[in-house]
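User: Quick one: structure for sequence A, then sequence B.

Assistant: Sequence A:
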Amino acid sequence: YRMDGAEPTTTFDVSQWTLSSPNATDNCATAATLRDYNVHGRNVSYATEMQSEAAKAFRANPHRFNLAQIGLRLLRVDGSRATLRDLKQTRQTVSLWNGEAISDFELDGSPVRVRTAAHPDLDAVAFAIESPLVARGRVGIDVKFAYPAAVWGPGVDEWNQPSRHETHFAAHSGGAVFARTLDDVHYRMILTTDGRVTQRQDGPHAFDIAGVDKSTLQATFQFTPERRVTPAQHDATATAQRQELSYEQVAAASAAHWSSFWTQGGAIDLSLSRDPRWHELERRIVLSQYATAVNCAGSMPPQETGLVCNSWFGKSHLEMHWWHAAHFPLWGRPALLERSMEWYARVQPAARRIAERQGYAGVRWPKMTGPHGVSSPSEVGELLIWQQPHPIYLAELLYRSDPSEDTLRKYRSLVAATADFMASYAHYDDQSQRYELGPILIPAQECYDGRTAPGVMNPAFELAYWRWALRTACAWERRLGAEPPSIWHEVAEQIAPLHVRDGVYTAIANAPFTNRRDHPSMTAALGVLPDVGLVDPDIMRATLLDVERDWQWPDTWGWDYPMLAMTSARLGMMDKAIDFLLLDTPKNGYLANGHCRQADRLPIYLPANGGLLAATAMMAGGWDGCPDVAAPGFPQDGSWTVRSEGIAAAP
């Protein structure tokens, strides 16, 4: 609940999207964003035009919206609203074992306790309030609904548009039903209470709920999609639609879910280590598992801030999908990745249309997208290519978890269509007799101008990723007894070499070669990826040390540190792996709740959490061809004692 300007936690659901501009994603809006670029003698269109109002609306739509704002109604003795300054002895904890949050504070000397739990399978959240102030009417619940603001950032509610949405309210003895309509979306919020309460409408979209004659108030709010109904139909069916769901039921379901989560996945125990940093690293590991399970295991790739607040209008960044979710199979939880992998099949037609428009084979996965796979316009994101191999990598992780024919057939078309684009995108250079990447592109390290001559050529990480993914696609076909298209093998084996300058790998193969800010992504060519025959370990070791000596750390991102740790581990520099994971920089701090804050606009940043889990899994569980020792990515000098179970080896 918002108090004194503080940002509230939002109530997002993975499937809830809306269009504030009804025509924002039609063909005319798409056309307004396209610009042709000369790519090896032919025109290729990219959605990089963002100045028109149509383009801006296209980029912002569809966007996630807040289902409801549910908060405490706190009154002083004189009946005025309390503020944060009125709350004393505040303490809030979350039990990772049962998923229950407990908030304790005092208001005017009276204790207040609020317990909160979310249902693991239903869109439901429940509250149990205990305080003598409940019976006095001074502690209750506020429910408010806003029109969604098509904005970038945490503030997703527009409170000054009451006529643009509808709320129909029908109270009954055990709660109420709220029928909501905004834009093209219709849903219900069903309130269940534990006894007699008073319910008062305090505006067209605002409601108060208060307990009567007792010191407790329990309320469960369940959200369900709904067809559009008239107010009369809503009132007539409110009782029939009522679904009783108590706080105890929600809390019990939550406890069962989290107990299963913690007992069935992998585990790493660092508590016997002599290095005093073990506790902080283990804290980050445990809290990151919780954060990513809550925010990154839905039915589509998550946004970078998960379900906490909107970033980039709530849209997914597919280049981040690896960082959000690759760790799930490595930690023995492949089912949590499988949920979002199914989304690729649903949006494959949209991705194929992008490739066809640009004259390529297969499917081109967008960088920034909503639920339908439509690429959002961007001067940078449209030119990224490193999201393209991710589905192959993620599918391979699922195959390693379940190396069956069923797995191969389930993801065969996804792997093949992805590889078809990759092979057709690479350009054969007659002079070098190599396949090259670019132009037009922007690498994972986004601080290069990929749109103007000479553009960007042969970024190091992308070259290695192209080889690895195409080789893996070939292996996928051969496992099924089929022969892969020869072009996959040809491009993989004749891909251009990584560029070396002054004894280190450069980010790209042409000037300015390496900018010393943003992601040091050339190191991912041996770290995130295994050795594909393009990397000299000695040169990569020199590259890693060069990055450590001279990089603008305030301009990095949270996943850069696990990336550097994985490179260190594969190079046998285990001390550096720990140092990078715990490097004291503004972008690598983990708050008390385990979130890795990047900036005001990114109060949490889940790719950092997922990257940390991928790196520590590799360091503890090993990788293909790693030294035959326990926890090969950790220092072997006795300063670290690593006990683990259920951790899978990385490729």
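Sequence B:
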Amino acid sequence: MNAGYYDLHIDQGATFRLLFTWKDSEGEPVDLSGCEARMQMRYIHPDDLVLSLSTGDGDIVLGGTAGTVELKLEPERTAPLTQLTGAYDLEIVYQGGDIVRLLQGRWFISREVTR
């Protein structure tokens, strides 16, 4: 399976949420029970880590048999984002060790005016 491509548009200083359902080729939700997820956001040049999200930190919530994936960043995590763009990918890690890159793309920051 190839990773899906999706660009993230994040408002600086605001809560960011993304909720979606991973479905198989027949349109059925993929069972994520027992899985973990991890995601890194990086600047493109230089390749510096900007944010790291995971199920362990509570930034990513997996919905088990419902196949849902929720990403959440609190305002204090989006406020320091000053460079306007970068790249990310989101991986699902199965209990047996298999890793699936589910999503990848670019992220874009809309700068906060009201502070």
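The beta strands are 4-5, 8-11, 16-21, 36-42, 49-54, 60-62, 68-73, 85-93, 99-110. The first helix runs from residue 75 to 78.

User: Thanks, that's what I needed.
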